[in-house]
Structure formats: structure tokens, C-alpha cells
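Hello,

Following up on my earlier ticket. Below are the four sequence lines again, exactly as submitted.
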Amino acid sequence: MGYQVKEVADLAGVSIRTLHHYDHIGLLKPSSFTEAGYRMYSDRDLERLQQILFFKELDFPLHQIKEILDDPKFDRKHALRMHRELLMKKKERLERIIETVDQTIQSMEGGIPMDKKKMFTSFSMKEIEEHQKKYSEEAKRRYGKERVEDVEKKTSRYSEEKWAAIMGRWKDIYERIAARMDRGPEDPEVQQTLEEYRQLITDNFYECTPEIFRGLGDLYVQDERFTRNIDRYGEGMARFLRDAMHVYCDRINR
Amino acid sequence: MGYQVKEVADLAGVSIRTLHHYDHIGLLKPSSFTEAGYRMYSDRDLERLQQILFFKELDFPLHQIKEILDDPKFDRKHALRMHRELLMKKKERLERIIETVDQTIQSMEGGIPMDKKKMFTSFSMKEIEEHQKKYSEEAKRRYGKERVEDVEKKTSRYSEEKWAAIMGRWKDIYERIAARMDRGPEDPEVQQTLEEYRQLITDNFYECTPEIFRGLGDLYVQDERFTRNIDRYGEGMARFLRDAMHVYCDRINR
DNA sequence: CCTTGACCCTGACGTTACGTCAGGGGTTAG
DNA sequence: CTAACCCCTGACGTAACGTCAGGGTCAAGG
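Thanks for your patience. The regenerated structure is below:
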């Protein structure tokens, strides 16, 4: 038992062509076909469609939606929470636009010209786009090359002492870098220390490729939680670290 | 004096290519060019761009935006008010989606499957699309075949007495119809009077085709300002008039 | 049994609103 | 006078479908 294309289309408020399209690109393949070749959608297919529409609402491109939904580590609940945030951003954006409309009406009634910058402030999509980038980056980072699961298994087995040793080296590395911030991100000693840092990660957690390493640097600046923690080693440390990591990765790739 | 492409792009948060595109399709042509062929945008161009972005926010296709903005009778203030409404609808839609997200999270936590219909209710774009259709239809109706300008030229030249005469007949027609509302919209006398009505419009304002006449009827119900005015001839008169006009037009087209 | 109307299918080309080069010039600060 | 940025015009590419064309399926009714 299941639903035919038209039923699904009507239920979800999309066109039949859209469903065909999603089938074609492998985003939503019906779980069964009748003998005559009719598409039959199951309840689980409907759920997936709902997910797709959620992400679409946030202007994710379809190929990215596919990646996200196909990922075995995809956590629906976590994803939904992130969605909620993004939706709220969108709502806020709309609210700002409405406000701009109101102001425009007022300025028209008063015959007063509007401030040029203010005219457009509401339209900015930057915030939303950045959020979205963060989201997909987080996903990539979370899964990296190895699965997070594996990493967690690996780490949970470490003994207390080993942990203490690792954290000690970690702290050491951070302190050494912090002490040399005034030398700039390209300072050879800083770069040398970063090599050590990457090795530490690779040895104890997961193979830290340059790409991942670079992403890690970005994360330190983009995610406040990291920024706050790192900046305790020194004002602006997170940014400096990111810059230095970029330099490091650039050099490797040549 | 004016703004270069990049300045405008940054100000409005769109790409340079977008501005080129708008120039190409005639949606937003810069009001001047430097000798070297650089686009220079004026303040008025910026205002137009703002309008464009407003409409874009409501998912109007660019060609329709062009039509609307290029129309000499385009009333910014009225347009903005309609915008506001549409934006509110969008916002409400987002709020519904957020609610659905919340419910989905809840149902996930409880392990209870969700209602299939409820799953999708929030995504429906129908309301917004209908609103949009109404909007562009109203525009078409307001301007009909001839431009309102022409109509106004035509009408403004009428002498006072002629006006009085027309309005007298108008009132007469409305009163006769109001008196026969209990007979239903198909009443021959009502239909006869409608013939007279259409002729009155054609003779004095513009060629009132059946399509326009039908649209006029719709307008009477959809636009409260008309509804209020017409209902002064009798409770429910506007609706009755629309129904009768529909019957009239249906008969003509056979 | 056969037709009719409401479904379904698969190509395949069209469309919208830009993105993204390629190739080449303009302008200004050091 | 030469970077470092700005600008231009084609022209092809892309995403997410819309819109035929041509043809099969299926349940209800005459």
C-alpha cells in the first residue's frame, strides 16, 4: 500500500513534475513501483519529503539536501533544531522588511527622503547564508573522513592518564603559540608548533587532513563556544590561530 | 554624481551580475553612463531597486515586477500596503512551519507517528499564490484594455452636466437592480439592466468586454472599498451584483 | 466489450534568474 | 609606469523545475 504521485503531490502541495524530478536526481525515490511502472510512495517516503521541504524552505540546494539526508549519521532531531533556528532568522528578516515597508510608507506620507543605507538593511541575506554555511560545514567537520562514531569509540577507551597527558600537550601547544602572537601567523616557530598540533590530533583522534585542519581553524572563529575558550589563552588568540592554520595549510598544498 | 555598480551592489546586498541582468532586461536601467561606459545609478534608481527587492521578496517574477513598476498608474503607497499584507502572510506561513517543526520534534521524542496531512499543512503556498494572483488581476482590471490615463483624459473633459447625467443613470441602474435582489441573479429584468450598465460603461469610459465586465464584478467583492460603497444600495448588494454579472457574461459567451 | 475520463509513464526542449569565465579596457595611488 | 581595483561586453553554464508530445493503464458506465 502506498500513495500515487498525485496523492503525494496534493498532500505536500508540490507538482507531480517536482516528484519526477526528485526521483530523477535520486533525492526521493519511491520505495516501490506497480507492474505498470507507477510510482508508489510509502509513509517513510512522505517523511523524507517533509524533510526535503523543510530544507528547501531554508533555500538549501537540492544536492546539499540529498547529501544531508543520505548521510547515515544524519541526526533528524539535531537537524530539526538547527532548522528552527534558521527559520527564526528568516522570520526575523521578514519582520525587518515589514518594518522597512512601514518606514517607507511613513517617509512617503511625510515626503521625507529615506536614508540610503537604511533602505536596504532589511534585505541582507548574509546572516542566513552564513548560518547555512556554518551548518553544512559543521556537518562536514563532524563526519570528517572517519565517522564521529569511530572517533568517540577511540577516545572513550583512553585511560585517564593518557587523557591527562594529551590535554597537557594540548595546553602546552596553545601556550607556546599564544606567547608568539606578536610575531604574526607566519612565524616559523608558530608554524612548527602547528605541525605538532596536527600530529597530536592525528595520533589521538582522527587523520587530520589539511582540509579538516583548515576547517577546524574556521570553526574556532565561527563558533563562539570555541572562540571564548581559546581566547582565554590571550586576546584575539582564536583569530590568530585560524590565520596561522590557514598559512600552514596553504604551505602544505604547494 | 551617482553610484557605481559595486557601490549599489554592496548597498543592496545583490551581485553586480544581478544589476547587469536587470539592466539587460530593462528592469533597472541606470539613469546615466560615464564616458567610459560605466553605469551610474541615481537615488531614484536606488528607490526603484528597493521596490524591485520588495516584490522579489514576495516571489514575483521579474517581468511582472517590471510591468507593475512601469505602469504609469502604479501607486507606490497602495502597492506597499499590499506588500505588507503579503509579507505578513509569508511570515505566518513561516510561523506555521516552525510550529510543525516543533510538533515533529515532539512526535520524534515520543516515538509517535505524525498525522500525514498535518505533516504538510504548513508548507502550502496556495494562500500566498492566490493573493498574488489577486494582486496582478486587480492591476489588470484597474487598467483594463486602455490605460487609465486615457480614461481619465476622456472623463476629465466631460462637462459637469454630462457627468451629472451619467451618475444619474448609474444610480438609477443600481437602484433598479437593488429592488430586484429577491428575484435572484438570473432575473431577466436584472440581466436586462446589466446590459444597460455595460453599455453605459462602454459609451462613456472604455470598451467594456465581457472579460472586463466579469473582472469588474469580482472587484466589487474583493475590494472592500467598492463593497462598502455598493452595499449602501442594500445588504449584500455587492455579492449579488457580482453573481448577476457572472451569469450575464456566461450567457454572452455562448 | 468497449469507450471515456482520469490517471500514469518517459523523453526532451523551454524558462527564469542569475553564476561564472574569458578577453579587454579605465582610473588612481605610490 | 605599474599594480591594484575598478568597469565593460559577450557567451556559455546551472538549478529546479514547467510544459508539451506521444503513448500506456484502469475503473466506471452505456
